[in-house]
C-alpha cells in the first residue's frame, strides 16, 4: 500500500495537529495571499499588512522565481527571503515561498514557514526527495499537465522522506482553451483530497490568469470543500514585475474576503460598511428562518399524522442548550437563549395553527 | 457586433421573460434531472415523480441517443418522446430532450419543452440553423473540445435564426486527466455567462462521469453563480442502459438537493429528518448571528470614535420594516418583527457595553 | 467482434477493389487536392486543371461549408456542387466534397464521387447512419478531439449500413500548442490503419494551418505508410474566402508534388527543370549504388569465408530477369538488362578484388 | 532579439563544428540508442555493441532515473555512470545520459559526452542555468506539455550561460488520446528546428510508448528532416527494469536501421540477408530509373519543340564528371562512368525514338 493511500483515513484533527500554526484543520480555510514576487521591503510589508487585515492566514511572495524566459525578472533571491522575514515580523503571518533547487533548501528553510514546490518542479524528483528534510510543511503545486496519479506519487516522494506535512495545491492545467491562462480542475483537486487525506488548496490566480474569475472560482473552491486558497495580491498590480494581469489590489482582495465571508469585522472601515454587512447578513438569516419555518410546519404535519402533541419541551430545551454551547466569544449562552426563544415561539404557533 | 455580444447587457428580468415556464431568472437555480435514457413508462414516470418531489424544476430523458458505438442502445426514439409526455402530464415538469438531426426537429418539438443540442452536435451547423425555428428554448451543450469562442459562435447560429431562448450547458471538456470522464471547466462557463448574457447551467454528471463528484461540483457551480444544474437520476443506476456509473438513485438525488438547500420541506419524510434539517439550519443561523454581532460591535466602536449614540431608532425601524417586507408565505411580517426585536436587543446591549 | 476489427486482415487488393476509380490500393498514394471552398467556375476549373497536371488523383472543394461563425462564408451550396461537376468533366478527376446534414445526402451524392463527413460531424450519428446508403465512398475525418476508439466506432456506423468504402482522414487534433492550428497525430493515423484495414490519408493543411509545414508533414505521412494526402490548393490563397493561411498556390503545390516524387514528367516545363530533376535522381541512384556495392562486397566476404566462388551466374540471371519483369512503360526489359549488366560487372570485380 | 532567434540563420556547417564527435551536421542522422536504464555491466556493454554494430552513433542509458513513483527503480546512480564509461571504452560510442539536479552536474559530466535534461526538468530553471557550464553538449527534451515558445525559452537559459551546443529532442506531448503513451508532435519539432537553428531529434520510444509505432514514426521523423532519433534498445525488453513496452530488442533495432537505410553492410550476417538487401536496393534503383527515363523523354519532347539536337555531349560529360566526383570509398570514378554510360545510352535512344 502506498503512503498516500495510507493517509486516506486520517481525520481532520490529525491534519490540524500536523500543521500547527497554519490553522489547517480548524474548519476555517487557510488563505495564503501576497504578491507574485517580492519586489521591495515597502511592497512586501504593505502587502503583508493589507492581507492580514483582510483575514489572510499566511503570506506568499516569490524570492526565487521560475520564469519561462531568462530575460524575465528572476526574483530578488536571498534578499527577497530576508524581506519576507521582515514582513512576518511585522504581521505575525507565516511565510510561504518557493524553493527551486536542492542547493537552495537550507537557505529557504531558514526564512520560510512553508516551502513551496512549484508546478514546473512537481516532478523534480531530486528536489522532492530532499525538500521534506528541512522539517517544515511543504506546499506541492500540481504540474501543468500532471495526472492525479502523478501528483499523488510526487507527494509520496516527500512523505517517504519522513515529512507528513504536505499541502497540495491545484493551480490549473493546460488545455486547448485560450480564454483562460489555464483550466482550473476542481474535480481532480477534490479527488486528491479524498484519496490522500492531505489538505488541498486552490490557486485561482494562476488557474485563471485573469482577475475577473478569482472571486467566482474562490467561491466554487470553498463550496467544493477545499481547505484553502492561494491568492496573488499586490499594492499596484499594473506595475508588478510578474503576473500583472492576475493580481488583485488591496481593495479587491478585501472585497473578495467579504464575499467569502472571511473578512474580519475589524476590516469594516465605516458605519455604512458595517450596515451593509449587517443588512446582507440579515437577509441570509431571514432566508434560513424561512426554510426553518417550512421544516417546522412539516414537523407539525407529521406530528398530527402520528397523533403527537405540538409542544415537546424536552426537544426545545435540548436544542437551545446545544446552541448555547456552540456560542463563542461574540454571543453569550444567555443571549442565544433569548433569540431562540423568540424563534421557537413563532415556530410553535405555526404548528399549533396546523392542528387547529 | 455579434448577436452574442449584444446580449451581454441584458438583465436577469429579460432572461426570466424569455424562458417563461422554466423558472430561469427567478433567482432560484433551474434543476433539470432525470435518467440518461428513457427506458420504459414505469422508469420515466417514477423518475419524474421522484425528482419533482425533491425539488427539480425540469425533467430530462434521452429518446434519441448519441452513442459512440452503433452496438450501444440507441434510445427508444419516438416512443421515448411519447413516454416523456406521459411523465410531464403526471408531474407538470417541463421536458428537456435531445434532437440529433434536422429531420427530427418537428417530431421532438411536438413533445418537448426544451430542445437539447448535444456536445457532439455543437458544431452541426445545419442543425443549429434550424433547431431554433420550432420556437422552443434550446439547450446548447458545449462541445467536448470547443473553445469559448466556438461555443458562443454556435449559440449565435441559433440566435440568428430569430430564437433568443438559448440556454448554455457546460458538461466537461477533454483533457489528459483520466481519473474523471471529462474535466469540468467552470472558468469558461462563468465567462460564457458574462460574455453572452445567456443563462448557463452545469452538468456535473457528464463532466465527472462518477457519482462521488456530483455533490461537490454542484455546490461549486452554484457558488460560482451558474443558473442551474443538469443531473442524471435513475431508479436503479446499476441497471441503466447507458451512463450507469454517473447516475444518482432517488435517495442520492434527494440528499444532493438537501445539500444544495433546494429540497422542499415536503420531501422530509420523518420527524427525525425534519429535526436534523432544523438543527443544521440553526447552526448556520447561529454562525451568521455571530458574524452579525461582530459587525454590530464594530458599529459600536466606530460610533464611539465619532461620538454618536448607540441607539438609532430610525435605523432599527427601517431595518425591521425592510425584512418584514421580504418575508413571504412562511413567515408573517409580524413574526419577523418579533424575532428581530430579540436580535436587536442583544446587539444593542453589546454596543452599550462598549460605551460603558 | 466489431465490424472494424473484422476488416483488419483485409489485403490491399481488396482495398483496391472496393475503391475502384480512386487508385487506392495501387501502391501509389491518393492525392486529393483543391480549394477549401468552391468560389466560382473559373476558380474551381483552374484549380482542377492545375492539380491534375501536377499529379493529383482527386479534386476537393467545399460547397456546403461548416464555419465556426454564422457570419463567415457558408459556401455556394448546390451551385458549388454543379461547378465541381463542371471541373470533373474538364479534368476527369473524381470529386470529394462534404455533406453536412442527412437532408443533403441525395443532392451531394448526385454530384460527388466521394462524400466527405467533416471533423465537426464525426459524431453526427444520424448522418453516419445514412451517408453510406448513397453507395459512394465516404471520407470520414477524425474529430478534433476524437480518440482512436471513437473514430473507428464512427466508421462502424457507416460500415454497418452496408457500405464498406470508408476512407479515414487524420486532420490534426486539439492540444495546448498554439503555434500550429492543430497537432497532426500521425501515431493514431497509423494505428487506425492497422486496426481497421481501411485506407487512411492525412490532411496536413488543416492539421498545421500554415503553409510552411505542409511539405515536411506530407513527406512524413507518406514515409509512415499513409495511403494518401488531402491538400488545400487555391489559385490565389490570399484572396481565398476561407482558410487563406494554409492553402498552397499552384506553383507551391507543384513543388510539393516534386518533393513527394509524384510530379509527372509532363509537368516539367523547361529543359532546365528536367535536368534539375535528372540531376536529383542521379544523386539518389548513386547513393543507392554505393549501398549496393557495400552489400555486394559483404557478399564477397561471406562467400570467401564459406569458400564459395564469386560468380554465381544463376543468381545474376534470376536477378536481371526479375527486374526486367518489373520494368514498365518507361523502360523495356532489354534496357533494364543493359544497365544491370554494367552494374553487375562493377560489382563482380569488387568481389573478385576481395578474393585476390 | 533573443539568443534563439539569433541562431536561426546558422548553417549546417556551424552545427557540425559545434557538435564535433557527434556527427551532427554530417548529413547523416544522429542515432542515439540504448536501454532506458543502465542495469548491469553485461547489459550495457551488450547493448552498446549491438547498437554500434547496427549503425547507432551514440549510446543512451539512464543512471539517474526520473520515476513517477518513489517505489519504482531509481537507477544505479554513479555506478551506472561508471558502467556507461566502460561501454564507451568498448565501442567508442559517445555517451548520452540524464542529469536531474544541479548537485549532479559535475559527476555526470565526468562520465558523459552529452548531458540530457529530461522532459520533467525542462523548466527546472536552476538546472538549465548551470548544466551548460560543464562545456559539454546538452540534449534538452521537450516538456510533456511545453509549448514551442517555452521549449525555445528553456534552450535560451542554456545558450545564455555561454554553451551553444544544445540539441533539442521532441518526445511526445500529453493529449486526450490514450492509445499511445503520448502524442508525437512532429509539427512543433519542425518549427523548433527552423526557429532556433539548433539540431532537433525525435524520440519515438517515449512518444508512442509502444514498439509497433517506432518504425513508422522514425521513418516519418527523418522524412520530415529531423537531425536524428533516440531509440530505446534493451537485450531483453520484457525483463527491463523500466519502460518494458517500448524498448526494442537487438534484432528489432537492426531491422529498424535497415528500414531507415542506416544499417551498415557489415551488419548483414548471411549471404541471404545481403541478397535481400540487394534486391530491395535494385527495386528502388529501378523505380528511380523509370522516373529518370520519363524526365529524359520529356527533355526530348522539349528539345524537339525547340528544334534542338538530342545529343548534347557537353551535358553528358559534365553530368558523369559530377557524379564521378561524388563517388566515395565504395565506387571509383571510373566505375561510376561505366554504369552511367549504360544509363545514358538507353536514355539517348529513347529521345531519338521521339524524334524519329
TrEMBL record, chains A, B, C, D:
Q: What is the protein name for this chain? A: Phospho-2-dehydro-3-deoxyheptonate aldolase
List residues of the Chorismate mutase domain: 265-355
What residue ranges carry the coiled-coil annotation? none
Q: Which SUPFAM superfamilies match?
A: Aldolase (SSF51569), Chorismate mutase II (SSF48600)
**Taxonomic path:** Bacteria, Bacillati, Bacillota, Clostridia, Eubacteriales
Show the GO MF annotations: aldehyde-lyase activity; chorismate mutase activity; transferase activity
> Pfam families from the entry?
CM_2, DAHP_synth_1
> Which superkingdom does the taxonomy of this entry point to?
Bacteria
Q: Which residues form the signal peptide?
A: none
Give the UniProt keywords, A-Z: Transferase
Which PANTHER family does the protein's record reference?
PHOSPHO-2-DEHYDRO-3-DEOXYHEPTONATE ALDOLASE, PROTEIN AROA(G)
Q: Name one GO biological process term.
A: aromatic amino acid family biosynthetic process
Amino acid at each position: 500500500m502506498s503512503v498516500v493511500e495510507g493517509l486516506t483515513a486520517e481525520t481532520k484533527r490529525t491534519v490540524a495537529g500536523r500543521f500547527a500554526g497554519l490553522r489547517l484543520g480548524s474548519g476555517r480555510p487557510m488563505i495564503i495571499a501576497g504578491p507574485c514576487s517580492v519586489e521591495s521591503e515597502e511592497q512586501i510589508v504593505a502587502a503583508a499588512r493589507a492581507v492580514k487585515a483582510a483575514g489572510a492566514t499566511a503570506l506568499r511572495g516569490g524570492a526565487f522565481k521560475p520564469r519561462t524566459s531568462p530575460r524575465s525578472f528572476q526574483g530578488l533571491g536571498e534578499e527577497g527571503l530576508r524581506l519576507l522575514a521582515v514582513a512576518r515580523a511585522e504581521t505575525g503571518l507565516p511565510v510561504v515561498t518557493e524553493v527551486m533547487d536542492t542547493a537552495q533548501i537550507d537557505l529557504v528553510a531558514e526564512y520560510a514557514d512553508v516551502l513551496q514546490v512549484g508546478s514546473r518542479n512537481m516532478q523534480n524528483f531530486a528536489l522532492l526527495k530532499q525538500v521534506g528534510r528541512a522539517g517544515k510543511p511543504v506546499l506541492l503545486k500540481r504540474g501543468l499537465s500532471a495526472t492525479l496519479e502523478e501528483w499523488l506519487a510526487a507527494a509520496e516522494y516527500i512523505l517517504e522522506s519522513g515529512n507528513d506535512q504536505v499541502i497540495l495545491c491545484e493551480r490549473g492545467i493546460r488545455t486547448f482553451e485560450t480564454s483562460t491562462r489555464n483550466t482550473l480542475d476542481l474535480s481532480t483537486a477534490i479527488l486528491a483530497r479524498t484519496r490522500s487525506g492531505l489538505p488541498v488548496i486552490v490557486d485561482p490566480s494562476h488557474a485563471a490568469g485573469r482577475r475577473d474569475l478569482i472571486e467566482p472560482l474562490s467561491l466554487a473552491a470553498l463550496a467544493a470543500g477545499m481547505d484553502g486558497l492561494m491568492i496573488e495580491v499586490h499594492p499596484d498590480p499594473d506595475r508588478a514585475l510578474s503576473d500583472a494581469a492576475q493580481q488583485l489590489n488591496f481593495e479587491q482582495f478585501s472585497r473578495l474576503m467579504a464575499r467569502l465571508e472571511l473578512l474580519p469585522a475589524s476590516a469594516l472601515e465605516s458605519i455604512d460598511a458595517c450596515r451593509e454587512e449587517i443588512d446582507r447578513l440579515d437577509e441570509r438569516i431571514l432566508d434560513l428562518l424561512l426554510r426553518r419555518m417550512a421544516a417546522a410546519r412539516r414537523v407539525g404535519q407529521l406530528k398530527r399524522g402520528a397523533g403527537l402533541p405540538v409542544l415537546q419541551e424536552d426537544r426545545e430545551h435540548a436544542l437551545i442548550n446545544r446552541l448555547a454551547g456552540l456560542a463563542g466569544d461574540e454571543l453569550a449562552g444567555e443571549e442565544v437563549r433569548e433569540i431562540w426563544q423568540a424563534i421557537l415561539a413563532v415556530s410553535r404557533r405555526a404548528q399549533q395553527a396546523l392542528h387547529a
